[in-house]
Design goal:
311 residues, mainly alpha, two-stranded parallel sheet, 66% helix
Length: 311
């Protein structure tokens, strides 16, 4: 291993250990900001360790490629901010499924862009690390030279379903907030939800199907296309990475309470004191974000689904 590789790996490990400090010490001075900083340490640590795994398996650093041009960075930040806005607006502002008790609205808004960019980098790199292991062990396909005849019709149906789902959720938001007259922006304490869990699932499928269609129209490979052609490693990688990161991140957050869950259906059913529904939501938000980044992040995002070439 070269010096840069070893330094990146050990810095990642160091940051993950450093992120544990709030479990040991009671930071009462500017607590919300300090907790946010330590969570950023955690996310960057995940990125550095996972990028080391990616380089071991592929011979290339995805992080180096991501940081190589301002365009790559800006496109990733764009996808992350869109993902963050969709995630927190639906599940937090309107769904009331979690809140940030240590943050004021001002601090939350100030940290929003950087926070979600760093957070979704941990999502992307954890997925790519697991996928690179699966690709290396299974060796995957070499080439698919022809699409199925039904794919154009399928993606048109996905587009219609996606637009319909998004329209339904927008209608629900206007209806339950009385066209925003009854809406209260509150991120730091419990509030009654405007949307229910079924609305959340409809919103997820709407966003996912729309971006799958947009990627298809752009001539990009995508998650559904890979599955249709028998390439299952992206699905397995999402399940494994989401489960591992969910357990790691959520268990570490439990005693700190940087975010606290509320209005969770089936709240009495828990795994290690975490609502069981979390372990459904984590893979879904991997899928949604990766679909968004796939569309915006070209050409760097070309390889996030495929381990081969699909024409």
């Amino acid at each position: 291993m070269n010096t840069v590789f070893k330094s990146r790996l050990w810095i990642g490990v160091f940051l993950l250990l450093l992120s544990l400090f709030p479990l040991i010490f009671d930071f009462t001075f500017v607590k919300g900001f300090l907790l946010a900083i330590f969570h950023i340490f955690y996310d960057i640590g995940i990125v550095l360790v996972c990028d080391s795994i990616i380089e071991i398996n592929t011979g290339k650093s995805f992080l180096k490629s991501l940081l190589s041009t301002p365009r790559n960075i800006l496109l990733f930040a764009l996808a992350s901010n869109i993902g963050g806005l969709l995630l927190d607006s639906l599940a937090n502002y309107f769904g009331g499924m979690w809140y940030y008790p240590h943050w004021s609205s001002g601090l939350y808004l100030a940290l929003f862009s950087v926070g979600f960019t760093v957070y979704f980098s941990s999502i992307l790199f954890s997925y790519l690390a697991i996928k690179s292991c699966l690709d290396r062990w299974s060796e995957g396909r070499e080439l698919v030279t022809k699409s199925y005849s039904f794919e154009k019709s399928l993606y048109r149906i996905l587009f219609l379903l996606g637009i319909s789902a998004i329209a339904y959720v927008v209608y629900r938001i206007f209806y339950t907030t009385s066209f925003f007259r009854d809406f209260v922006f509150e991120i730091s304490k419990y509030k009654a939800p405007y949307l229910n869990i079924y609305d959340m699932f409809v919103a997820f499928f709407g966003v996912w199907f729309l971006f799958e269609y947009l990627s298809f129209k752009k001539g990009q490979n995508n998650f559904i296309k890979d599955l249709l052609h028998g390439y299952m490693n992206p699905l397995y990688a999402i399940i494994f990475a989401a489960t591992i990161l969910a357990l790691y991140m959520e268990i570490q957050n439990l005693p700190i309470g940087l975010w606290i869950y509320s209005n969770m259906p089936l709240d009495s059913l828990k795994i290690v004191n975490l609502p069981i529904l979390l372990f459904v939501g984590w893979p879904l938000h991997y899928i949604a974000f990766l679909a968004i980044y796939r569309y915006f992040g070209e050409p760097l995002s070309n390889g996030i689904w495929k381990g081969d070439v699909i024409e």
